[in-house]
Specification:
single chain, 9 helices, seven-stranded antiparallel sheet, Naphthalene 1,2-dioxygenase Alpha Subunit, Chain A, domain 1, about 25% helix
Length: about 350
């Protein structure tokens, strides 16, 4: 039997590899933009960076959420910063004005230019989808819908989080990590390290012996039972189905929905900065974003244990990948799968390798 070895260090350390990813996989996949509650009202906008581009989402007067490149079609000044509300989008440089649909409305003295027609000028739009209250974008105008990429994820999440439409962010934590985005994503995508490195998660939240991860489309689907009720670190009775399970839907390449026991929705999303840096955002959600003792306690516990523990792990891996002594070892792929197997990393690294060597996002 041929052993499958982990990816070579260059995939995580070479700036040229990162540039291939920036213009390839990161620009050709569905990426998180914001939560719908960030742009709840007509005229609300939210700016963000993705794959080296500045973008912004805005809710139109018709209620539709649209996404545009954050650049004026006149002489390329950025249009908005941060979040806010506006009747129209006005460029700070020369006051060219755009409707919330992206269509140019007016500009100082443009009528003096023969043949100038505002109807011919529009901001450059970006593919946008709403997914259970989360806004995703794809810089590839020909990208397949999210349902093609992530089959059944929406339907399954509706079963695990039936009250998703009422949820808003309660806590939103930004976590800079000094590692390649793939190191952080790989760490998230296996639990081979959990019992040794995450004692609180492994003894007070889930039963590691029941943990398994399987690919479904471009999803890595995590499933496990919750820990014995007398060992749980928080009250998990919710009144919904699946209350005694932990489930996760990692959506390639940089977002994951998690549902903790008790039907507590939480998310991870990654933003790649360069070959050596990534920022991870950790979100926790409650009904209307209202204070919840259970969710807040769990968020604090997670931040002080699992999140903090993972930072040290991934940053150590990144340092090790730069060592001349590193020779990629074989992945531990158990045919029976389970928690002490890296079959999920086998699939994940194939996607990663294809995205660089094959130029394929999907």
């Amino acid at each position: 039997m041929t052993l499958t070895r982990s990816l070579a260090a260059k995939y995580y350390t070479d700036p040229q590899v990162f540039e291939i990813e920036r213009t390839g996989v990161l620009s050709q996949t569905w990426q998180f933009a914001c939560h719908v509650s960030d742009i709840a009202n007509p005229g609300d906008y939210h700016a963000f960076d993705l794959a080296g581009e500045s973008l912004f989402c805005v809710r139109g007067r018709d209620g539709v959420i649209r996404t545009f490149y954050n650049v004026c079609q006149h002489r390329a000044h950025q249009l908005v910063q941060g979040s806010g509300n506006t009747r129209v989008v006005v460029c700070p440089y020369h006051a060219w004005t755009y409707e919330l649909t992206g269509q140019m409305r007016a500009g100082p003295n443009v009528k003096s230019v023969e043949g100038f027609n505002t109807a011919d000028i529009c901001l450059t739009g970006v593919r946008t989808e709403e997914f259970l209250g989360f806004v995703f974008v794809n810089l590839d105008p020909n990208a397949k819908p999210m349902e093609d990429w992530f089959p059944n994820a929406r339907a399954e999440l509706e079963q695990w989080v039936p009250n998703w439409a009422a949820l808003k962010p309660l806590e939103w934590v930004e976590i800079p990590e000094r590692c390649n985005w793939k190191v952080s994503v790989e760490n998230y995508s296996e639990c081979y390290h959990c019992s040794l490195n995450h004692p609180t998660f492994a003894t007070g939240v889930v039963k590691p012996e029941t943990y398994d991860i399987q690919p479904e489309g471009k999803i890595l689907r995590h499933r496990t039972e919750c820990q014995n009720l007398d060992a749980m670190t928080y009250d998990i009775h919710s009144g919904f189905d699946h209350w005694n399970e932990y489930s996760s839907w990692f959506l390639w390449p940089m977002f994951s929905f998690q549902v903790y026991p008790g039907n507590v929705l939480n998310t991870y999303h990654w933003r790649a900065i360069d070959a050596d840096h990534v920022v991870v955002w950790r979100g926790w959600y409650s009904v209307d974003g209202a204070e919840s003792e259970t969710v807040r306690k769990l968020a604090i516990q997670d931040r002080e244990t699992t999140v903090e523990e993972d930072i040290h792990l991934v940053e150590s891996v990144q340092r090790g990948l730069k060592s001349r002594g590193y020779v990629p070892g074989p992945l531990v792929v158990d045919p029976k799968c389970g928690v002490n197997s890296e079959h999920s990393i086998l699939h994940l690294q194939r996607w990663m390798r294809d995205a660089v060597d094959g130029g394929a996002a999907q």
